[in-house]
Fold this sequence. Notes:
The chain is mainly α.
Amino acid sequence: MDDGEWGDADPWTAANDDAYTSLLAHVRSGPSSTTAVDLDALGWEWGTSRGRVRAAAARLEDLGILSRRPDGTWQYAELSDAELSDALDFWVALMGPAIRATIPVLTAELRRELDDLVARASTSASLRLPEYPTAFSASVQFWFEHCPNALVRGLGLRAFERVRWARFPTQLWSVHDIGTWSATITRAVDTGDPAVATAAAEILERLFEVHRRNVGIPRTSRPSAEVAERLPSALDRALLRDVRSGALPVGSTQSLSGLVTRTGAPPVAVLKALRRLHDLGLVSGDRGRYRVAEPSLTNWQDAMGLLVGVFGSAVVHVLPGLAGTALDELRRLLTRARSDGEVRDHRYTESAFAVTRFLAEQSGNRWERQALRLAMARLAYAIPEAPAFRQWEADALWMSLDAAAGSGDVGTARTAARLFIGIAGAHVDDVTARYGTMDS
């Protein structure tokens, strides 16, 4: 077996860029209706290895526009209105974490680049120039392209690709009134104030609501039961156990063929499990060779950065409309978390996690849901022992979440989301102080 023929644990590695561009061009040059895609035939036509084409297909699968059928064949389809609505929400949810992470590391050169991008976007918007949509997109994508949080950066760049290629032809940015956004993001950089960065992200969210109306993409609210997702399999858990227990030692290099022999599972299933380990930051490498990564505080910090964005988005989009048994369950979880924090109970960490888990279970946005699950898993596994949550004075957060639940009031939910940013930041500072020399 040629280990490289099955693809990569990280299909978004630069080595797969050419195959991705070719496959994207192929599916977008055909009919916009559901279309079968023969990967092997395309690989032969392009003179591209099977592994590269399969990795490109995995990218389009991440975007939601290519899917693998039970018989192993692939088909292309545009995103539905509901899926595109979710994609827009998810992209916006990542903006706050990206901006807050990037501002502290901006160099003088990057600041000049940003100022130039913002100026171009503002000028082309005022003059209604045809290049405005591209200029605006570049000024927004700057925050993902230079984000030091690798997890947020990767998901953010993917989210843009998803929105960009969701439909044919591509739906261009339609909102020209960006003066408040430009002024606020400039002030956020000037002051370095995370609260101003959060305000800028909220302004951008409002602009996206206008864009949504302009292009006819209605806001959707789907029950979480309608969200299709891949949950961890027995194979996923087995390889995770082997990494965590040291059966696959840190620093060791494993081959895909060796893991197929070890697990008795088919190569496609093993590669999917390796992709999950890669997403958790536990494995690196490609082309059939995979290195078990060192535990990393940076991976844990990146997961917290992601969690802040998607937790806040879920709070805003899920809590106001809660009703019935779901509302009762959340209030029970919030009461437990508040009580455990007040008495400094040893189970406080689990109580706090249970609230996040509830939001993941209730979210009807599949990308938000997946990101919440990914963040929680990284927080649990990025370092040898998951650190305790010791933010005992979080009463205001728990009460604010309770007030937002079932209220129908997005403003109250947004207040709770802002409170979570502060609590999460204090948790990161606490954990960093405890584990600060781990990556050195």
